[in-house]
Write a structure and sequence with these properties.
alpha+beta; 4 helices
């Protein structure tokens, strides 16, 4: 599998999908937070609280168990995808599974970035011997639910009223793709 891929977007621009480097730390945090601003309940446990901790996290990643790629358009990080081995690989019962998280800046949605990032992730998962990819998506994020379905993920269940934000209970869809 090529680590860096170029592809044409629906709007005619070229995107480069590549592994994140420590120099991308600030842009990755900004991309994740750009989603968090519109949906304050986006979880950020796997992303650094600051640039220094994110740099250390990226520098220490194990590429056979963890994936962090960025979508670069015109030398700007506009999206990122993380896939992390379930339970950090500590449990043999779940070591075959990777958890997937995807973030795309709002102004870059709908031009084909999401499908390319998921395609990259699926190829990476197969190459590294994973048998299953999983994603947890809030029911309020219909666009992501549709994207994952189009990429072959299936709904495996719903955690009702998973979180409580702004006086509202939000459920979470559990999605999976067997590789």
């Amino acid at each position: 599998m090529e680590r860096t891929r170029k592809c044409a977007l629906k709007d005619g621009r070229t995107m480069v999908v590549r592994p994140a480097s420590p120099d991308d730390s600030s842009a990755v945090i900004d991309t994740v937070r750009s989603n968090a601003m519109e949906r304050s309940y986006v979880l950020m446990e796997h992303y650094g609280k600051d640039v220094a901790s994110e740099k250390a996290y990226i520098a220490g990643m194990n590429s056979s168990k963890e994936l962090l790629v960025v979508a670069d358009v015109d030398n700007e990080v506009v999206g990122c995808l993380a896939a992390l081995q379930a339970d950090g690989g500590r449990r043999p019962e779940t070591a075959h599974t990777a958890k997937v998280g995807l973030h795309i800046r709002e102004q870059f949605r709908g031009v084909g970035i999401g499908p390319y990032l998921l395609e990259y992730c699926i190829a990476w998962g197969r190459e590294h011997g994973f048998k299953k990819l999983e994603a947890n998506i809030f029911t309020t994020n219909q666009r992501s639910l549709n994207l994952f379905k189009k990429s072959g993920f299936v709904e495996e269940g719903v955690r009702q009223n998973r979180i409580h934000v702004g006086g509202m209970f939000i459920s979470e869809v559990l999605m999976g793709k067997v590789l």
